[in-house]
Specification:
Elements lengths: L5 E8 L2 E6 L10 H15 L6 E5 L4 E3 L4 H4 L4 H7 L1 H9 L5 E5 L2 E3 L1 H8 L2 E5 L3 E3 L13 H9 L1 H10 L3 E2 H7 L4 E3 L4 H13 L3 H13 L5 H15 L3 H12 L9
Parallel strand pairs: 2-3, 3-5, 4-6, 5-7, 6-8, 7-10
Antiparallel strand pairs: 1-2, 8-9
Helix pairs in contact: 1-4, 6-7, 10-11
The structure holds 4-(N,N-dimethylamino)cinnamoyl-COA (DAK).
Length: about 260
């Protein structure tokens, strides 16, 4: 079935797919249907050998202004429990291929949390990041207190979560939340460029490297180093390792096959 709230561009560059959140009138507010479509699309692209990197974007005005407040407003705690949105977010979190967020305009609440689930973030000069849930009587519920704090540190995270203040792309870059800022007309192009750079590398090495970096967030240094070592050894079982090193010796460009 054709998705209603997202647009899937299968090949915006070799091995690069792009998912565009598409509820422009609502500033891409993340209703349950959109999140289900996003989850299903990511699952399919993660399993597709013709895709190595996935970009998620909104439009120039908004990446996403948060979860859909109108849809959430009348819910009870039991409704929220039964809907179990966390399983959708957890599935998205398990995407093995690199996710690049291309952000312009608002990335707020669940929108900011979705951005932080991505592995790299390209922002336009107009991007604004925030966790304004406190202003509507709740608090971040999809990682905003945890991932934001790890990314920008306690002082700024606490201020953003307790006051709901938005930060600019410039402040986000200074704080270490995002990778780079480009003019608004270039934000998608830049994300595709970055994605293409990664997509040209061994997809096996890239997936294991991503998994290893993420391990740093929920393990001790010793455990993380052990995990890294295992993945490092494992890559010597791949054709890509043989190809990559032989190509270096031969002074030619490697051709990685993901095997
Ligand atoms: N939900 C629903 N509609 C939204 C929306 C949102 N988050 N944000 C904007 N819209 C709608 C507006 O209602 C308006 O619709 P109409 O009135 O025209 O029908 C349209 O988009 C344009 O918005 P504005 O007229 O307000 O546009 P402005 O440029 O004046 O203001 C704004 C832009 C982004 C500053 C403002 O719209 C705003 O403050 N929006 C709400 C931002 C916000 O509070 N976001 C956090 C929402 S709570 C969970 C996972 C995630 C979450 C929770 C649980 N689990 C896994 C359990 C996440 C929670 C949240 O994100």
């Amino acid at each position: 079935m054709q998705p209603q709230f997202i647009i899937i561009h299968q090949q915006v560059a070799p091995y690069v797919a792009h998912i565009q959140l598409n509820r422009p009138k609502e500033l891409n507010a993340l209703n349950l249907e959109l999140m289900t479509e996003l989850r299903d699309a990511l699952k399919a692209l993660d399993a597709d050998d013709n895709v190595r990197v996935i970009i998620i974007s909104g439009n120039e005005k908004a990446f996403a202004a948060g979860a859909d407040i109108k849809q959430m407003a009348g819910k009870t705690a039991m409704d929220m429990y039964n809907i179990d949105q966390f399983s959708t977010w957890d599935t998205i979190k398990k995407t093995k291929k690199p996710l690049i967020a291309a952000v312009s305009g608002f990335a707020l609440g669940g929108g900011c949390e979705l951005v932080m689930l991505c592995d790299m973030i390209v922002a336009s000069e107009t991007a604004r990041f925030g966790q304004p849930e406190i202003k509507i009587g709740v608090m971040p519920g999809a990682g905003g207190t945890q991932r934001l704090t790890r990314a920008v540190g306690k002082a700024l995270a606490m201020e953003m979560v307790l006051t709901g203040r938005f930060i600019s792309a410039e402040e986000a870059l200074r704080a270490g939340l995002i990778n780079r800022i480009v003019p608004v007309e270039l934000f998608l192009k830049e994300a595709i460029q970055l994605a293409s750079e990664v997509a040209a590398l061994s997809p096996l090495a890239v997936k294991m490297a991503k998994e290893s970096v993420l391990k740093a967030f929920d393990s001790s240094l010793e455990e993380g180093l052990h995990f890294e070592r295992k993945n490092f050894y494992l890559l010597f079982a791949s054709d890509d390792q043989k190809e990559g090193m032989q190509a270096f010796v031969d002074k030619r460009a490697p051709v990685f096959k993901g095997k």
